TrEMBL record:
Protein name: Putative glycosyltransferase EpsJ
Gene Ontology MF terms: glycosyltransferase activity
Biological processes, Gene Ontology terms: single-species biofilm formation
InterPro entries linked: Glyco_trans_2-like (IPR001173), Glycosyltransf_2 (IPR050834), Nucleotide-diphossugar_trans (IPR029044)
Glycosyltransferase 2-like domain segment(s): 32-161
Known EC number: 2.4.-.-
Gene3D superfamilies tied to this protein: Spore Coat Polysaccharide Biosynthesis Protein SpsA, Chain A
Keywords attached to this entry: Glycosyltransferase, Transferase
Keyword flag Metal-binding: no
Amino acid sequence: MVGNAVWPKSAKAEQQENQTILEVDPDRNLVSIVIAARNNGPFLSEAIESALNQSVECEVIYVDDCSFDDSLKVANNYRDQGLQVLRSQYHRGVCEARNLGASTAKGDYLLFLDGDDILQTDYVQKHLDAITPQTPFVYGAAEAFGAFSTFWDAPEWAEGRLWLRNFVNTSALWNRHAFETAGRWRNKINTMWDWDLALRGSRLGTPAKSEAVLLYRQHPTSWSANIQTKNEERQETLLPKMRQICTRLSIGSIISGRLADFFPQWMSAVAQSVKLINTQEPVELVLLDNSNNPRTLEKMRNESYRYLNTFETIRIISHPVKFQYTTERDRRNKVAQFMAHACNRLKSEMRGDIHWIIEDDILVPLEAGKELSETLMNGWVPPNAVSGCYRSRHIESQFVGGFFDEEHIVNTFKELGTQITSVDYCGTGCLMYWKDRTPQYWRSHYRKSPAHDWAWCAQLKREHGEIMMLPSVHCGHVQTPENILY
């Protein structure tokens, strides 16, 4: 030993030293409480005792992350009460320390506790009352005590909008299978670990809120006090970073077959744009084949296979919807109904947190995905949807997007300008949006006008949502493969 450094033992020796035999009743679900801490000696006794004194029997594991205070001595005093003590021979960091405890735990459910926080006696029971076999995790409120006191309530899941900001604290109760499937604890930006895990875990089912309240200690040496993450300016920087790390993007398109010869160019533009997006999660592509043409389908398959390294999955789904019409008005109504139905089908098929609809006659610029996604994730409250700009094929002097006036008459853009603009409506040619922060269904008509895009945007605006249009994402609108309107 030199100073506070200890030469690491082998993994096998460390496992044997930390091994404790626990008798588990196979007829009941066991809860394992993992306390991972470093240098929390002054507060550790209260944390350990609160875990040991739960109203339901729990396995309690303490993981010491190479402390150099008296934490290990404090923890060892509770071995005869059933506490398992694991000693890390080097400083792992809180995420790896928690994962070490989880690897040792025998419980069907896992609950993590910081070494300076306290669980009320019925904390675990209240979480158990709210969990089901299909629930990935259960969360609750927190009450600060110590240096200052306040109460942080947590919303019900349906009202929470976790992508805006976190409300799930460290001591949620996790279904063990969900915890493992979500990828366990990980450290990406050296903070916001709870949010990171909760975002990933929420994809596995619907989380639930319980009546449990965590006692969350505030003191000058706590992690949150030292890294100043409560500073608003720092938060505004960190929130988009975590969203970019965790979000999964799905790209969807309705392939009509009208521009089958343009599909290779369309596919190339989409793939190149995806490569510039700053994401660590896989991207999927979903194509609804409405061509009713075997040759078009074969071309789509052959071209798509060239980009299997760009997308995690590429799914081509048959959508052979046909319609007949007798008048121009009838045609417009049928087209609007078809588009609403197809967009609903796309939304049900796309599994990402963010959806990007790119119509098959829109040519996106290289940095479209990067600029749209960064705008969609930015700020304290990011916009609900963002759109690129492209001209109307029917009225070439106008862009698809603009405002509704007091009489609900559409006012379109004729010039783009250079500023990102909040708009009342846009088209679905190049539209990126949060799946859970936008209308659940697409409708075909807006005030008797056949316009699925106007109807969707108007509903979003009624729900106080925001749509931003980016002039920098200037797309081409394809009339023929040789004639692209800019």
